[in-house]
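Predicting holo structure, uracil bound.
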Amino acid sequence: MDGYLSKLRKAADLDTLAKIVQACHCCSLRNGCQHVVFGEGNPKAQVVICGEGPGADEDRIGRPFVGRAGQLLDQILAACGFQRSQHVFILNVVKCRPPGNRTPAPEEIQACLPNLRMQVHLLGPKIMILMGNCAAQTILRTDQGISQLRGQWVQKGEIWFMPTYHPAALFHRPQLKKAVWDDFQAVVAKYRALVDPEHRSPHC
Ligand code: URA
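Done. Tokens:
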């Protein structure tokens, strides 16, 4: 683990980091998954979106948010005028699929945290969208639930964090859609304020 961490800290760019993380065995999740899902998007994006961990589709393909929740996320991003390859970088708290899509255990989250920290350090975003309990609680270091946290900006250092519900939650609780849409509209407003006043979006 110590050898891994010192290698990780020396990564000077995202491609180098991705290669190192591909070889991570800091917890046992790596033994039961097909791919280490590092994340994808524009390495220069000012918006980072964080989910929980890869599901079955992501594990099979090796890319984040490509299943049903990912398709919904793509629709939300399109409505905001954000494209995966241009405006955002998408990643997860843990890079390997927890068996049966269970929530990652605290020790798995801790083991993967240096990977996430280094990604955020190298990406240097202005805005981070934290989707669901796992992302919001891990990154904001709180026990509060997402229903309490969502919709309120938290600024830490140079980064503005917006916690919101995970898109997968909208399938069984469609009444949450309005809250998620409000949160993404707040992100667009912040993006215009901090990054690009000319940003165009079809629906907000
Ligand atoms: N859910 C997540 O939290 N992340 C993914 O990549 C896919 C589904």
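Residues 106-123 form the longest helix (18 residues).
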